[in-house]
Write a structure and sequence with these properties.
transmembrane; cell inner membrane; cell membrane; 353 residues; 2 domains; binds manganese (II) ion; Purple Acid Phosphatase, chain A, domain 2
Length: 353
Amino acid sequence: MNSQMKQAYIVISDVHLGNGECNHKDFCDFLEWVHGLEKQSEVIKCKDKKITIKTPDKIILLGDILDLWNPKNSDRNNIIKDVMKPFYLLTNINCDKIYVVGNHDDSLGELEGKGDFDVLNNGKKIVIYNRHYPKKDKKSGKAHGIKIGNKSYFFLHGHQFDKNQAILKHVNRIWNPINWFQDLFNVKFTKKYWKANFAIFLGLLICDKYFLMREFPQPDFFDNLSWAMIIGFFALSSIPGIVANTQGIIYNSTKPRDKTVEQVIKDKYYQKNRETIDADVVVFGHTHFASSYELKTETGKKLFLNSGCWVGSDIEYNGITCYANTFLYLDESGAYIMTWRGSGNIECIEAFT
Ligand SMILES: [Mn+2]
């Protein structure tokens, strides 16, 4: 029992590896620092308290770690490029990793339960959870939080709290337009020549309308079909390029970002799930705003914590700083929102003891 009492978790979300705004180098430096905790723990000041950051027993990767939706230049090779080093560094850290998928890495959810890739050299595991960690109990339909110290914690990415995302989720089960266009765009020929292909496609359309139909008032069926196939080929090899390169702009304007935990919870979307989560603390990411909110319910209080992001830089909203490069540290003494300031400097933003 004693070993269960002394536990340390590190929670990271919304790194968006592959995205142009991802703080890739900072994230790698941070992981190297986490690896270093194995040899020596770090003592930092949090208000008037001293906290010892120990080497973690578990790392929770809380969604949107990879950006499969919106990679730089829509090119998925940028994800592969960005992923190499962080995952190599993660492997070196001597603890199990829990990967809870978010909306930007939603398709990884298909890997849940597909076991044999996940044991690393050091005997540690990386386990994928499609929705949340821990899973719901099949009988009661309830999810019981993980006990760390005297509090229990429940982890989910948080797009489940986001109205737009929740509607999308239903559609996405059958057809996910963002992924679909990304798939079509990431065909090498399309990726390389979509602009030229689009010019050819337009050219063919114009030809079709103004010249060919007049020359051949009644073209036979097979002529028509092969003509349609040629136009179709260039359409298919160019339109995904246009969609993939504009959806980033559209997506950015509808981003769920920059909402504090209070705003998310007061939006009432959480209500739906509330009876099924049996935990003192609900941890999520998604909005890129490391913050907290305490909700008073009929049964008591529930604390909501947001793990923030590793994208962009610190921004101020209505006098509140939204930090970049944030993580949560949880141990038997409490929960802490922290920010990586570079070169091993950690700043504590909020403490819950
Ligand atoms: Mn998200």
